[in-house]
């Protein structure tokens, strides 16, 4: 997006007072209340460079453009979810229309663990705020290429799942190594589907990683890849649980480290994800990010228990990170000449099986996902999902997703597949999500009713 020095940084605060997993859960409203106090104390809201906005609600249709909520959007979301996603949409609209230069949606509940199919809450997330905003921009403003940089300590597995096959959305996530932290994924060999190879890039970092190695990754991998990809819009999934005081993560990133990261990435929009050290980290990290976005001096933002040189990078960690960066840069350079794994090819389809655990709701989901390999477009997806909700309950659905820019053949084939699945009637819910036409159909085999 065009950046003009005289434009403001837009902020939305939404602490979601009435939404919590449980009263003592780390994902709770105080996460944002301390930040809000700090920002008021520092007089940030009075600065001419800052403008605050009131959030709007995302519509169920905005959510259906991305997700298959089983059975319907209303069953998986509360008003707080619609506001968190709506805040991201509102700020993205302001950036694209040029009324602010960039924005930060300080909202909860978070979203980056929410995958394309939603049976419940996983990793504190039901719907993916960033993905909903990105597909809104692609529909509303015909933006084609978007980059999402996920800087949360946890792997952004939901965002990865949603854009896995999408050649026009670059997803880069650095996070604490999945062998040591939820959700246990995000390895360097997870590089995206056959039509979008290396448009997913994961950088698992060893526990204890400091600002030095992190900024090495930014300078030597993320920025060169972004330059090549040349996105029209850059999103930062801004999780702050890489902070050295975070109770869930084991990293050593500082508020200054986060500010420099933000300054280097220059995101059009940052959307808050995790961060659970509500007093010792979040107010400082959030303030530093806001100042960096607004091109203001952030050098004075420092945690009370931090001193210069407190964390030193170990040579072993640094050389490990350097080798990984070199390997991933190599994958990126070969992105258009790497062929899909032959054993997953089933005729004209590319197939993968997934098993997904919803840690918050204790749901066990199994999926078979088939991508129609097409030479004319990114190809449509057919997902068969079966979830075990416990207590003898289960949910089955067939989800068909037609991408932006689908060719006529894929449009016809996917519509035909949907009609045949309806007639067959052996799966309770059948969905047809068509991003090209911006339509969403759901057929309930029990009532024989179809809804738009
Ligand atoms: Zn997190
Ligand atoms: Zn096609």
What does this structure look like?
With 452 residues, the chain is α/β, with parallel strands linked by helices. It has two domains: 9-333, 3-Layer(aba) Sandwich (Arginase, Chain A); 342-451, no CATH class. It contains eleven helices and 18 strands. The protein has helices at residues 30-41, 60-64, 73-76, 79-97, 129-140, 157-163, 211-229, 255-265, 282-293, 315-333, 408-424; strands spanning 9-14, 50-52, 68-69, 102-107, 117-118, 146-150, 169-176, 200-205, 233-238, 269-272, 345-346, 349-358, 363-372, 381-390, 393-402, 429-434, 439-444, 449-451. The strands form three sheets. An eight-stranded parallel sheet has the order 2-1-4-10-9-6-7-8, with helices on both faces. An eight-stranded mixed sheet has the order 11-12-13-14-15-16-17-18, covered by helices on one side. Helix 8 (255-265) packs parallel to helix 9 (282-293). The model has no long low-confidence stretch (mean pLDDT 95). The structure holds zinc ion (ZN) (2 copies). The site of one zinc ion has 8 residues, from helix 11.
Index terms:
eight-stranded parallel sheet; binds zinc ion; eight-stranded mixed sheet; 2 domains; 18 strands; globular; alpha/beta; Arginase, Chain A; 452 residues
In short:
The chain is of the alpha/beta class and about 450 residues long. About 30% of the residues lie in helices and about 25% in strands.
**H/E order of the elements?**
EHEHEHHEEHEHEEHEHEHHEEEEEHEEE
Count of DSSP H/I helices: 11
* Content of β-strand: 15-25%
What small molecules does this complex bind? zinc ion
Cα distance, first to last residue?
34 Å
| CATH homolog superfamily of the largest domain | Histone deacetylase domain
Specify the CATH class of the largest domain. Alpha Beta
SS content category: alpha/beta
Proper CATH architecture of the largest domain: 3-Layer(aba) Sandwich
Q: How many strand segments?
A: 18
Give the overall form: globular
Main beta sheet: 8 strands, parallel
Reported by name, the CATH topology of the largest domain is Arginase, Chain A
What is the alpha-carbon Rg in Å? 21 Å
* Helix percentage: 25-40%
Q: Low-confidence spans: pLDDT under 50, at least 5 residues?
A: none
Mean pLDDT: 95
- Overall number of domains: 2
Strand order of the largest sheet: 2-1-4-10-9-6-7-8
